[in-house]
Write a structure and sequence with these properties.
single chain; mainly alpha; 94% helix; rod-shaped
Length: 65
C-alpha cells in the first residue's frame, strides 16, 4: 500500500510540474502563477484516478488469494 501512495505523490508532483512548465511556456509565468490552483486540482484528479485504479487492482488481487 505504501508503494501505491509513493506512486501517487510522484504522479502528482510530476503532473503538476509538467502542467506548470507547459502553461508558463505557452502563456507566460504570470499566467501560470494565476492558474496554479487549477493546475493543482487537475493534476490531483489525474493522479487520483491512477491511485484508485491501483487500489482496485490490489484489492481484486488480494481477493483471489
Amino acid at each position: 500500500m505504501k508503494k501505491i501512495y509513493i506512486k501517487f505523490i510522484a504522479n502528482l508532483l510530476g503532473l503538476s510540474m509538467l502542467m506548470f512548465a507547459a502553461w508558463s511556456f505557452f502563456a507566460g509565468i504570470e499566467n501560470a502563477k494565476e492558474m496554479l490552483f487549477v493546475i493543482a486540482v487537475l493534476s490531483s484528479a489525474m493522479a487520483g484516478e491512477v491511485l484508485m485504479g491501483d487500489a482496485y487492482n490490489l484489492g481484486k488481487q488480494s481477493k483471489k488469494d
